[in-house]
Write a structure and sequence with these properties.
- By secondary structure, the protein is an alpha+beta fold.
- Helix content is about 30%, strand content about 10%.
- It contains five helices and four strands, in the order H-H-H-H-E-E-E-E-H.
- InterPro entries: Knr4/Smi1-like_dom, Knr4/Smi1-like_sf.
- It comes from Streptomyces hydrogenans.
- It holds the Pfam family SMI1_KNR4.
């Protein structure tokens, strides 16, 4: 997965899958993308960066269930009073963490709260929500840059993975994620 240079084949696939979608929003343009990046101290990973600038800045209807969010938006259920999003801070995870299953969390309560807050608010932008507090994030900083994660109150799982038996198998990255849902495939095929 190349997050620095936009692969023309990936962009063509995204264009084919989404540009003609009846609920597609117009592209944001390069000026808006560069302004967002400067404001947040990040460079968005490819091919998402070029997609938003040249193809479309979201979908008004799903998937994700409530649509692909425009750049810089949060879903209506994100909630007031959440900490400020810090995109330039590295995303803290490199593997799945289902904290709901942690019978004996190794972190004291205060540290646990700080870690889970960082998972939600550091190093990623929101792509959309499937409701019930399940959010799709595109990681923009850190070792998982370019990967899409589902983050919910129960834990955080990467979409697509190099590990054996990943909870959400598929081709990692924004294009793999879009291709997966555009084909109507299940997120958790073995569940």
């Amino acid at each position: 997965m190349n997050t620095e240079t936009c692969d023309p084949a990936e962009l063509a696939a995204l264009r084919e899958l989404l540009a003609s979608h009846p609920d597609a929003a117009p592209p944001a343009g390069w000026e808006a993308v560069r302004s967002f990046e400067a404001e947040h101290g990040v460079v968005l990973p490819e091919p998402y960066r070029t997609f938003v600038a040249e193809v479309g800045d979201g979908l008004r209807a799903g998937p994700p269930y409530y649509g692909l969010l425009p750049l810089a938006q949060t879903p209506p259920d994100w909630g007031a009073g959440r900490p400020e999003r810090r995109l330039a801070e590295p995303f803290p995870l490199t593997e799945a963490w289902v904290w709901e299953d942690d019978e004996d969390p190794a972190l004291p309560e205060e540290e646990f709260e700080a870690w889970t807050s960082a998972v939600f608010d550091h190093g990623s932008l929101l792509l959309g929500t499937d409701g019930c507090g399940m959010y799709w994030h595109l990681v923009v900083t850190g070792p998982q840059r370019g990967h899409v994660w589902q983050i919910a109150g129960e834990g955080a799982l990467p979409f697509g993975s190099h590990v054996a038996d990943p909870p959400m198998p598929g081709i990692p990255g924004f294009t793999g994620w879009v291709t997966h849902w555009s084909r109507g495939q299940d997120w958790f095929p073995d569940a």
